[in-house]
C-alpha cells in the first residue's frame, strides 16, 4: 500500500519534525500512546507536556511511561489543553491532538470546539518556526461533526503567509473515517 493510513501519516509528520531536546505537547493524552511516542522522540534532554481532563487517562499515561522507563521525559497534567499557555513556557516543536472520546471509556467525555480552538490558538503562538500541530479528527460520535466543522472553519482562515494548513483524508472510506489536519508555522505573526 503506497498511501499511508491516517494514523501512520500523522506519526510520520511528527517523526520528521521532532528532534532530541525538543519541547512537545500531547494535547489529548488518553491511553498515552502518543505521549510515549513523543517521549521516545525527544530524548532525555527533551520534555513532553501531556494534557487530559480525565484522571484515569492521566494515570494510564503515567503507567505507560513508567513501564517504558520514560516518565522523566514527560509532565502529565490533569488539566484541559485550553490551559496550555499556563503550563508551557518554552518554544514548542510539535503538538498532537486526537479529537473525540477515549475508546473503552466514557463516550460523553469528548473534546469540544471552543477548548480545542483555544488550545490551537495558544499553541500557534508557542510553536517554533517550522513547528507542527497535528490533529487527528474523529467525527463519527455525537458532537463530532460540530467540532470537525468548527476546527475546519477556524484553521481555514489562518493566513497562509504565516501558517500552512493541510488536510489528509481518504474520500471513499465508509463510516466517518478519521482524517488529519496539520498546521506548519512559517513565520511569527501578531496573533491576538
Ligand atoms: N491520544 C490518545 C491515545 O493515545 O490513547 C487518545 C485520545 S482520545 C481520542 C481523546 C482524549 O481527549 C480523551 O482521553 C479525553 O479525556 C481527552 N479530552 C477531552 N477534552 C479535553 C481537554 N479539554 N483537554 C485535554 N484532553 C481532553
From TrEMBL:
Mind listing the GO biological process terms from this record?
methylation
Query: Is Methyltransferase among this UniProt entry's keywords?
Result: yes
Q: Which residues form a coiled coil?
A: none
Q: Name one GO molecular function term.
A: methyltransferase activity
Q: Keywords of this protein's UniProt record, alphabetized? A: Methyltransferase, Transferase
Q: Which Gene3D superfamilies does UniProt cross-reference here?
A: Vaccinia Virus protein VP39 (3.40.50.150)
This protein's name: Class I SAM-dependent methyltransferase
Amino acid at each position: 500500500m503506497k498511501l499511508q493510513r491516517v494514523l501512520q501519516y500523522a506519526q510520520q509528520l511528527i517523526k520528521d519534525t521532532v528532534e532530541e531536546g525538543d519541547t512537545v505537547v500531547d494535547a489529548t493524552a488518553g491511553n498515552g500512546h502518543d505521549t510515549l511516542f513523543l517521549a521516545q522522540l525527544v530524548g532525555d534532554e527533551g520534555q513532553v507536556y501531556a494534557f487530559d481532563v480525565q484522571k484515569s487517562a492521566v494515570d494510564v499515561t503515567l503507567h505507560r511511561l513508567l513501564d517504558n522507563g520514560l516518565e522523566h521525559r514527560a509532565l502529565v497534567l490533569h488539566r484541559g489543553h485550553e490551559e496550555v499557555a499556563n503550563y508551557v513556557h518554552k518554544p514548542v516543536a510539535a503538538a498532537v491532538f486526537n479529537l473525540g472520546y477515549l475508546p473503552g471509556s466514557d463516550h460523553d467525555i469528548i473534546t469540544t470546539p471552543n477548548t480545542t480552538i483555544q488550545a490551537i490558538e495558544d499553541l500557534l503562538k508557542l510553536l517554533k518556526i517550522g513547528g507542527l500541530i497535528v490533529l487527528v479528527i474523529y467525527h463519527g460520535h455525537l458532537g463530532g461533526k460540530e467540532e470537525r466543522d468548527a476546527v475546519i472553519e477556524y484553521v481555514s482562515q489562518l493566513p497562509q503567509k504565516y501558517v500552512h494548513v493541510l488536510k489528509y483524508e481518504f474520500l471513499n472510506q465508509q463510516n466517518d473515517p478519521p482524517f488529519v489536519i496539520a498546521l506548519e508555522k512559517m513565520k511569527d505573526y501578531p496573533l491576538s
